[in-house]
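#structure-requests
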Amino acid sequence: MAQWPSDYSGAWTLSQSVQREGVGLHSGQQAQVRLQPSRRPGYWVGWLDAPELPLIRLAPDYVSETQLCTALRLDQRRLATVEHLLAALAGTGVTQAEILVSGEEIPLLDGSALPWIEALVEAGLEALPYASAPLELELPLTVSSGVSFATALPHAGLRVGAAIEFADAAIGRQLFSLDLSPSTFVEQIAPARTFGLRSQVDQLLAAGLIRGGCLENALVCDGDSWLNPPLRFVEEPVRHKILDLLGDLALIGLPRAQVFAYRGSHGLHTSLAAALAGLAKSSTSSSFAS
């Protein structure tokens, strides 16, 4: 059992490098990821197969696609399905790290953040001698798309929640929320796996998606049952939505707020991250002006 930070007030990085490899969900291609310590705040992406390229600090501005994953355009390189890895880093309190990748997609592994948690346990965490500065809200912030919305409200800590509704009876309506800390993230959110609908598999494959998906790395719902039970939690799908939400917010950093998404999507989550980034820039400009 790792000793995780008690909350999100500190600055943390890895103690040493750690590497994982696997198949990308959509590309179906093998990829490698090496996580390394960093003395610079934020998450910095570089390339194992092009070490001469400079590292780029991740931000919502780099989001290029949000269909069934969050994909980034980093100069001339594309990097897809970043959300589970970023959720693992941010959720455990790691505020800075280098992410070196070969290929154009982060490996799906078992479809949750749990294998990344195991990698972080292997690497160990190092506390840095300064505090982090989570974004604090003065007013509510909401983004919406049709009936879906994501909102962030002023809050002393970090509380996250999500609600989903599916016609498939095995999923139906689900609601879950919790006060988040590194330990509750690891126990309650990280193990939740990505999921899909059997009725959409052929359509997605025809669109060139989920070529690396299988019953070992994704839950598949077939109406009123699951093709590959058992679930890790009764409400595993909505917990995975929270995992995705946290991974997308990690592009700007987890705020000090109460965050909730109703029928969320990567497009909605990254729009909220971009709005939070705008608040952060505006706050920085105001402090310099004063």
